[in-house]
Every structure is written in structure tokens, then in C-alpha cells.
Amino acid sequence: MTTIDDGTARFYRDSAAAYARRARRSPARRLDEFLARLNPGAAVLEIGCGGGQDSAYMIARGFDVTPTDGSPELAAEAERLLGRPVGVVRFEGLSWRERFDGIWAEACLLHVPRTALPDVLTRLLRALKFGGVLHASFKAGGGEGRDDFGRYYNYPSHDWLLRQFEETGWRAVEITEADGGGYDGRPTRWLHVAAEKPDLRNRLRCLGHRQ
After folding, report:
1. How far, in Å, CA of 211 to CA of 31, rounded?
2. C-alpha–C-alpha distance, residues 124 and 128, integer Å
3. What span, in angstroms and rounded, lies between the C-alpha atoms of 203 and 211?
4. pLDDT in tens, 121-138
5. Rounded CA separation 105/135 (Å)
6. What are the beta bridge partners of residue 189?
7. What is the pLDDT of residues 144-172, one digit of tens each?
8. I want to staple 68 with a disulfide (CB 3.0 to 4.6 A). Which of 46, 87, 148, 181 is the partner?
């Protein structure tokens, strides 16, 4: 299974430096909300870290961050900023199990083909410890397509995206919508997802009460 197509991979390969060093509005409020759900120093996986700015923010806050990106060129740009290794990991290569307390996936899962998204969401669920939390963001739409740079997007609707998370075992899924922009400079409707991995201990406790 390949989760990044040639057009998307080509863009990030050829434009890595410009993309990583672009003027970018920091998602500080979303980052703070995400980090507030974690214990101090918690282990965080960032996928699609781009230029590394969000990882730098979390590291500065004292969290144990594992930054990754599917593009070797972008990972190299992030390494320059962070001064530490950045893993080159594609979505289909996510193989951790119960390793992280949180996963930060800002504007990256939106490139996963619709048919592959359930598998990727399942891999992310496995990577989290029980009770762990995830943040992800998507560009809203009514069906998959490409932008002016040739990048693939899954362009989900609110309801379709909610089903993908719920059907792959996530709980407490909340999707908020906001207007914004992106690298292409076009007005964008964003879907921001907060979700949790069920806490096994609570599930076992509930089962015990029922017996």
C-alpha cells in the first residue's frame, strides 16, 4: 500500500526548502489545547512535521517529541531547525505499538487516499498508549482531488470523516470547523479532529461491573 502518490511526493521533494521556510501562522492555540491533555514530559509523535516548527514548539515546552515526515527532503529541513534526527516515515510504515501518549498530525493525513485512511487511522491508534490523544486536521470538501501544485487531497466532509474515526475504534471524536488558508493561498475550510484511544483499564473496569 502506498499512501503518498507521485504528484504529492514530487511537490515536497522539489519544494522542500521553500515550503519548510515559508511564512506560516503558528497553530499555537491548537498546540496548547493538545498539550494540555497530556502530562508534563509526555511522549509525542509528530507525523508530517514539515519544517519542524511544531516539534520545536513542543520540545521547548518540555515534551519528549519524535518528529517524522514522509519526505526525506522535508525531514532534512526539519533536522536543520531542530538539531536532532528526524525520522523518514511514510504513513504505511507506521508500526509503533503503545509507544506514545499523543500524536500530532497537523495538515498531513489530508494527503492519505480515502481508501487507505482506515488503515492509517488504525496504525495511529496502535501507536498510542491506552487513553492517548490525537490531533489531526484536514481540508474540507466533497470528494478527493488535487490542488494547483498537483498535490492529492482526500477533501472529506465532516460526517464522512467522523465515520472513518469511529469505525476504526477511536472514541470521544470531536471535529471543529474553521476558515483559514494554506500554502496555495486559497481560502480553506479546515476540519480539526481531536480523538482518543479507549482506555483499556476503564473498559475492563466496566466489564467487571457488568459481571
Report:
1. 41
2. 7
3. 13
4. 999 999 999 999 999 999
5. 6
6. 179
7. 999 999 999 999 999 999 999 999 999 99
8. 87
Task: State whether the Cα torsion 89-108-38-77 is positive or negative.
Answer: positive
Q: How confident is the model at residue 206 (pLDDT cuts 50, 70, 90)?
A: very low
Which residues make beta-bridge pairs with 178? Answer: 190
Q: Determine how β-strand 64-69 pairs with β-strand 87-88.
A: parallel
pLDDT digits (tens, 9 = 90+) for 21-45: 998 888 999 999 999 999 999 999 9
Rounded CA-CA distance 131/34 in Å is 14
For 35, 117, 144, 172, the CA distances from 40, given in Å and listed in that order, are: 8, 30, 38, 22
Q: List the beta strands (DSSP E) in the chain.
A: 43-46, 64-69, 87-88, 100-105, 128-139, 145-146, 152-153, 171-180, 188-196
- CA-nearest of 27, 24, 69, 78 to 48 is 69
